[in-house]
Amino acid sequence: MACRFARSLFLVACFSVAPSPGMAFGAPILDYPGLKAIIADHAILSIEDLLAYLKSAGYPIVDNYALVYRSRSLQFASPEFPRVVLLGHDGAPIFEGSQESHIFLAFAGDARAPAAGRLEVISFDGDAATFRFEEVIFADGRVRFDEAPPSCATCHGTDGRPIWDSYRDWPGVYGSADDYLADTAEKTRYQAFLAQNARSGRYEMIAVDPTLIMVDDPGTRGARRNRDLTFGFNTANWRANAERLKRLPQYDGIKYAIVGTEQCFALSGDTPELTGYFPNEVAADVTNLIGTTTLTTLHQTQGNHTERVQRLFAALGEPLPGGTDAGVFLDQDTFDVKRTATIRALVQLAGGSIAAWSMAMAPQSYAFAVGGQYGYFHLAPYLLDGEALDCAALKAKSHEVSRSLIGTKIPTTPTPDGPVSALDEQAVLLRCSSCHASPADGRTPFYPFAEPQSLRTMLLADGGALMTKMAARVQTDLPDLRMPPAPHRALSREEKKSFVAFLNRLVLGEE
């Protein structure tokens, strides 16, 4: 059981893209101005009244829900009273081109919880391709609209984005592992919720159906609610990312290389096949930047996935699998990391960063969410503006427009992920040296932390194999694999970050 979920995070699957029940064409579409008008025109003074109206008026948003029992938001959530997140869009099949996600609503399922009258709203402005964060507050028989709540920026950032895990695992959401409920503590909690609370209060208004998140049986699985919510967020998020990209000073010079990386990327060697995309005057420097960016992106992404595996198993109520390193990728995952690193490097050339592109809680996460045959990026439709270009044409166009990069300073290393305390870093290195500088037990490997250049040579050998292993083992919490091992104290999150930052600087020749 445990191994099945460990693999599920990394496998890339093909899937049906049929719309969920309730997402019918021609159904009324809800947006934020429409929401405000409904509340005003119908004298709605509670979340319950709003849900009842939306349901009676045939808005499919009340049927398109996810149930969050372990939330990192400010709204209350528990297994008995999960937080509700609703998705509203026009019901077109996913990635058919016409789907537009207009609005997302979230509220506490327990009407007695603190601040239970607060309805959180994320609306997507299609014209500006930006997310807007609002709050509707029902309290004391009145309603108030806050269209710039300062608390939202704390987690969602000033250039706001949704926060939602990527396909196909959503720790803390019923159906955490690929919309399944297998024989785990999560299934037990869900059954208790169905028996006690799913047919009353706010949940009654969204018609929670026990058949729509199924047990571990692909043949009988019902609606893919978590997946559909992910794609609803994701479609809008990539439109927003495309607009961020277009605002960069050197965007025109890398536009076609970005699309080529997304659509024509081939798994060949250590770097993407971008030969011919750039003029000879800058091609070698661009290739060098992509190479150095790939190493740091791989280690960062391993840390992102390790953290999510740990949250997934905690949510399922399952022990972490012994002897399985959650930081190790399959070939497909390494392939996608290389593509991510290439786009990261190209965006840096344009004068920007992809650090806030994903919907992960933490900045500098490269866990992008599309899945299946669509890969991890979905920029091309918004960058080509109707141009129909094959890979040869993309290469020719890129070679032409990227001449604007000639004469500019091409960076040699990726943009740092952020400052790290020198004191924390030194303390971690001393701990490592205490065992590895002069091992005496015949089992502990020797690593010359006091001789940076010697350590760098070891880290870069065999394509960076030791670098990858060291970064993964420091970042994981799996008991059989973490470094330092028990009974030594585990590293804190900041200590792990400082150690990986040291490794990255060392391999890039900055130490």
Textual characterization of the structure:
The chain is of the alpha+beta class and 511 residues long. The protein is 41% helix and 9% strand. It has helices at residues 2-8, 32-41, 47-56, 150-156, 185-196, 201-205, 225-246, 251-264, 280-316, 331-349, 380-383, 391-401, 422-436, 452-475, 493-507, and strands spanning 65-68, 83-89, 101-107, 118-125, 130-139, 142-146, 180-181, 214-215. The longest helix is centred in the middle third of the chain and has 37 residues, at 280-316. The two termini are 44 Å apart. Mean pLDDT is 77; it is low at 1-25, 90-99, 323-332, 369-375 and 417-423.
Strand content: 5-15%
The dominant shape is: globular
What is the helix/strand order? HHHEEEEEEHEHHEHHHHHHHHH
Span of the ends, CA to CA: 44 Å
Overall pLDDT level = 77
Across the major sheet, the strand order is 1-2-3-4-5-6
Helix content: 40-55%
Whole-angstrom Rg: 24 Å
How many helices? The count is 15
Low-confidence stretches: 1-25, 90-99, 323-332, 369-375, 417-423
- Largest sheet features: 6 strands, antiparallel
Total strands:
8
Class from secondary-structure proportions:
alpha+beta
Descriptive terms for the model:
single chain, 511 residues, alpha+beta, 6-stranded antiparallel β-sheet, two-stranded parallel sheet, 15 helices, disordered N terminus
Compact summary:
41% of the residues lie in helices and 9% in strands. It is built from 15 helices and eight strands.
